[in-house]
Amino acid sequence: MKNNYSFYSLLTAIPVGLLILLSFSSGQPGQFSGSPGDGNSTCTSCHAPGSTYGGVPTLTGVPSSYVPGQSYNLSLAINGSSRSKFGFNITAESGSNAKVGTWTAGAGTQLRSDAAGLTHTNAGNTSSTWNFTWVAPATNQGNVTFYFATIQANNAGGNSGDQTVAGSVRSTLGIDTAALAAFSMFPTQVDNDLNITLKNADAGQVRIYNLTGALVQEQAIAREERLSLVGLTTGMYLVNVTANGGTQTARIIKN
User: Fold this and answer.
1) What is the pTM of this model?
2) Which DSSP string corresponds to 118-164?
3) What residues make up the domain containing 216?
4) CATH assignment of the domain containing 225
5) Adjacent-strand bridge partners of 208
6) C-alpha–C-alpha distance, residues 181 and 51, integer Å
7) Cα 247 to Cα 59: distance, rounded to the nearest angstrom
8) 151, 175, 199: which is the final residue of a domain?
9) Are residues 211 and 231 in the same domain?
10) Burial of residue 50, with CB atoms counted within 10 A of its CB: 0-12 exposed, 13-18 middle, 19 or more buried
11) In this structure, are 94 and 190 located in the same domain?
12) Which residues does residue 66 pair with via DSSP β-bridges, in sequence order?
C-alpha cells in the first residue's frame, strides 16, 4: 500500500511539473516586474539564477514627458546575449506605486493576469526584442516609472541555470504641462468671433491681454468654444489658455 501511495504521488507530480515548465516558456502572467507594486518580485521567483550570458535589457520609446491619454510605442530589447531564449515582465506605476496607464500587446507579448502590464508568449520567447504600446493615464498622475524584469534562458527545459536582469533600469516620465493646455484657434485675424479648440482637455480658462499686459477679457471655455471679441478695439492681443494646470499663449489681431 505504501508503494501505491508513492506511485500515485508520482503521477500527480508529473502533470504539475509539466505545467510549471510550460508556464515558464509561455510567459509568467503574474506580477513579477520587480516594481514596488509587485512586491519587488522578479522572474527569480520562478527562474533560478545561473550563468552570466551578457545580455543587457534596454527600454526605448519612453518620452521625457507624457500627455494624458496619449499612446506611446515602446520597445524592450535584450542586447548582446549569448542565449536564444528570452522572456520579460513589465508594468508602470505612479509615485504612490499605483498601476497607471493601459497596455496593448504586440507580437510575441500578452497581457499579465492583472492587465496592468505585459509578459512574453510562447512564440515570443525566441525573440530578444518586444514591441508594444502603453497609453498614458487619462489624468495627471505625476511621474510614472516603468519597471521590468528580463530572462536569458539556457533552453535546458527547466527553470535553473537562467540569468535574470530585473528592476534596475527604469524610465521616469513627467507631465508636459504646456501640452496639457495645447489649443488651436482660428482665425488669427479676427473680425468678431474667435474659435478655440482644446487638444488635451475638456475644459479650461481663457484670458486675453493687450500688449501693455492689461487683462481685457476672461471666461471659462469647453473643449470647443466660440468667443465674441466684438468689444475689443483694433490691435494685437495675447490669448492665454490654461487647462489641467498647464498654460499656452498665442497672438491674434483684432480687425
Assistant:
1) 0.62
2) EEE-TGGGG-SEEEEEEEPPSS----EEEEEEEEEE--SSSSSSBEE
3) 177-254
4) 2.60.40.1220
5) 217, 239
6) 51
7) 31
8) 175
9) yes
10) middle
11) no
12) 175
